Description:
308 residues, D-amino Acid Aminotransferase, Chain A, domain 1, single chain
Amino acid sequence: MSRSATVGALAGLADRHVHSGKVRELFTVGDELLLMVASDRISAFDFILPTEIPDKGAVLTALSLWWFDQLADVVPNHVVTADVADYPVDLAPYAEPLRGRSVLCRRLDMVPVECVARGYLTGSGYKDYVAGGRVSGVALPAGLEDGSRLSEPIFTPTTKAPVGEHDQPMDFEAVVDAVGPELAAQLRDVTLGVYARAQAVAERAGILLADTKVELGRDSRGTLTLGDEVLTPDSSRFWPADTWQPGRQQPSYDKQYVRDWLLNDSGWDRVSAPPPLPEHVVAMTRQKYVDAYERLTGRQFSAYLASA
Length: 308
């Protein structure tokens, strides 16, 4: 469901629409709740691409809900319900466009920090390491390669940039300056705790969790709470364990396939508007998202769609 289709199908809620992200639309539901709706949009290099990935919003929703359950004893989350039958009665006319891709959740006061944990060195973290031997102020040993496993996971926060702008690395001292020492330590500990649990779960499914970004905020009682989505191919790098080989780019269950096509095959200059994705890239990317869901959860995505 595209941004225009998502908003169009929910036109009757236009006066409640409060935010459009790269993928999600947010609507108010009373004073304490939000309705979060995941579209099929996909972004890369801080651009929202003109082509959608069918069922992507449903995969993100299904996988996040599953992970929230796996992490329930690590950190509380913002979910109230994802069952449209339990939504407030005034949302009943929108049940079909909301089914399988929406979550009714508690409002959070989000922290102004992107909380990232890395267990493997790749992406922007690897670029920073090559440039200076550090990632977000964390010194790493010499001789690491793209894809190297770190001796222990590290907390590598970034700023929260507006849509279309790029997040910038922060060291831990900058996080302390932004939110204070107590909350900074909580953010680090919860982020690493989420990573540790997810890493163990993923490895049992034959998947390596290279890194992940989590969204944290405080609820009305001041409790640090997990929000937005969690541990999806949009916010995490998932690699097949049986093909992992440091020193090269890893096969992955995420949108790296889209990034690679844009960089290597599209002729795009990364300045102008990005080009439409060809059908084979759309189909392969959809399959990677579905594969991530099915391998991690042990469930069939078609069954989720049928039951939503």
